[in-house]
């Protein structure tokens, strides 16, 4: 499920976005693209599971390199290279994108390691917690002010994390790392601005990570653990296709975000961890003890509170616009 620019999809602490002014057909197309993106991300556990016995570091390296190749091919085909030279004259944006690349790489490798080691349910928990962590970062780092329901949601999320740590006998590091790394990734993208389109940002991030990916493949190969080409044509093809698998849902999301409001995206996003959890329990044979289900229930309660707050805020914003004099309406 991990990808770039997805963090804009979380339920944010600021004012809700303006309802779309696009034609009804565009809104419907955007909704379909949103469901496609989050549905594909939700099915990622099944994809990464079949990549075994490749380890998480090798999968990370392949994902970086083949995604970079995919992006380069797309950019060459559509002749979209004019943004590169202006970008090179913006060191702050380049530095911020490099930081974002490191954060998303951490997220990717932890997620793949969780899936391939049979901890998909904890990975799903991480993406359930992600909106709550994002809201908390808005307060701590950006100084944003939360509404009462948002405070309640964040506090409930903290209770869930503490409960899961106490009852499980350990801190749920996988879930927390996924939630925090992706929230920090989104914060970094917000701080450096949204100057880059989705495919441009993904291209730059994979360029930054490409040398690391090459080193990882060399190290894994030197240790005799390289799986590429060792387990049949089907397995090799799946490793190569990891670039397309990474980029396609991202591009679907980017297209959806231009057509439907942020609140709609924020609601659709919960499809991903729900599907991940279903994959873990129904298809990958993971067993969740009763305590884990209770913890998930507390997290879901927090997300319900956060969603209700978001919908109430959207309704209030619409009512305020209706009450504005004609000359004061935003254009």
How is this fold's topology laid out?
Blueprint: H1 24-42, H2 44-50, H3 56-77, H4 84-88, H5 91-116, H6 120-140, H7 148-168, H8 173-192, H9 198-222, H10 232-240, H11 242-257, H12 262-268, H13 271-283, H14 290-323
Helix pairs in contact: 1-11, 1-13, 3-5, 3-9, 3-11, 5-6, 5-8, 5-9, 6-7, 6-8, 6-13, 6-14, 7-14
Would you mind describing this structure in some detail?
The protein has 331 residues and is mainly alpha-helical. The chain has 14 helices and no strands. The chain has helices at residues 24-42, 44-50, 56-77, 84-88, 91-116, 120-140, 148-168, 173-192, 198-222, 232-240, 242-257, 262-268, 271-283, 290-323.
Query: Approximately what portion of the residues adopt beta-strand conformation?
Result: under 5%
Question: How many strands in all?
Answer: 0
Shape: globular
pLDDT under 50 segments (min length 5)? 7-20, 323-331
Instruction: Summarize the amount of helix as a percent range.
Output: over 70%
Outline of this structure?
It is built from 14 helices and no strands. It is an all-alpha fold.
Write a concise keyword list for the protein shown above.
331 residues, mainly alpha, 14 helices, disordered C terminus
């Amino acid at each position: 499920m991990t990808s770039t620019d997805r963090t804009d999809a979380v339920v944010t602490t600021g004012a809700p976005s303006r309802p779309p002014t696009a034609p009804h057909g565009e809104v419907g197309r955007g909704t379909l693209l949103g469901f496609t993106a989050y549905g594909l991300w939700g099915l990622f556990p099944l994809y990464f599971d079949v990549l075994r016995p490749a380890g998480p570091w090798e999968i990370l390296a392949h994902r970086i390199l083949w995604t970079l190749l995919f992006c380069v091919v797309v950019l060459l085909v559509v002749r979209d290279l004019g943004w590169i030279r202006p970008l090179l004259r913006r060191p702050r944006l380049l530095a911020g994108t490099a930081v974002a690349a490191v954060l998303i790489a951490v997220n990717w490798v932890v997620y793949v390691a969780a899936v391939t080691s049979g901890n998909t349910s904890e990975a799903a928990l991480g993406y359930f917690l992600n909106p709550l962590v994002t809201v908390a970062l808005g307060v701590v780092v950006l100084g944003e002010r939360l509404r009462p329901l948002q405070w309640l949601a964040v506090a409930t999320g903290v209770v869930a994390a503490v409960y899961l740590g106490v009852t499980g006998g350990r801190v749920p590091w996988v879930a927390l790392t996924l939630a925090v790394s992706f929230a920090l990734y989104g914060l970094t993208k917000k701080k450096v601005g949204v100057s880059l389109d989705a495919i441009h940002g993904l291209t730059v991030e994979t360029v930054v990570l490409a040398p690391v990916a090459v080193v990882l493949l060399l190290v894994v190969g030197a240790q005799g653990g390289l799986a590429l080409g060792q387990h049949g044509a089907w397995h090799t093809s799946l490793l190569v296709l990891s670039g397309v698998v990474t980029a396609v849902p991202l591009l679907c999301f980017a297209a959806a975000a231009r057509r439907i409001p942020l609140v709609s995206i924020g609601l659709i996003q919960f499809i991903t961890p729900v599907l991940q959890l279903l994959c873990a329990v129904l298809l990958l044979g993971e067993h969740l003890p009763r305590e884990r289900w209770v913890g998930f229930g507390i997290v879901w309660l927090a997300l319900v509170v956060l969603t209700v707050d978001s919908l109430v805020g959207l309704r209030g914003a619409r009512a305020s616009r209706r009450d504005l004099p004609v000359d004061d309406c935003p254009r």
